[in-house]
Amino acid sequence: MAMNYSDKVIDHSLNPRNVGEIEDASGCGTVGNAVCGDIMRVYLDIDENQVIRDAKFKTFGCGAAIATSSMATMLVKGKSIQDALAITNKAVAEALDGLPPVKMHCSLLAEEAIHAALWDYAEKNGIAIEGLDRPVHDVSELEEEHCA
Q: Which of 28, 62, 106, 147 is catalytic?
């Protein structure tokens, strides 16, 4: 079965932005999907005003997982923690001009990796972030709820 990927998905898959690690990251979150085998790790550098200065990722997965990681890191850069928390899997998919329905779980992975990195930041700093729930490590548990 052939997939119809947008030009943006193809571009971000072949030329991902923000690949790598941030040494001494303010927050780092790793999530996976046991069903498809994708694993995504997001690193955030957050300043004293709780604005995300930088975001990087490492992803083991398909082209759609790489593209959603790339786009998610672009979307959170320069955002406040609360604005970053508001970025949903649907927003990531829309920024990529859509994903095939069978690949929407990749955008959910990106959303949850950002949440996991914010959770790590909150724990390191002994703070609570309003609206942030403890992240899941396996997003396949959430797929029906978010991707329907």
A: 106
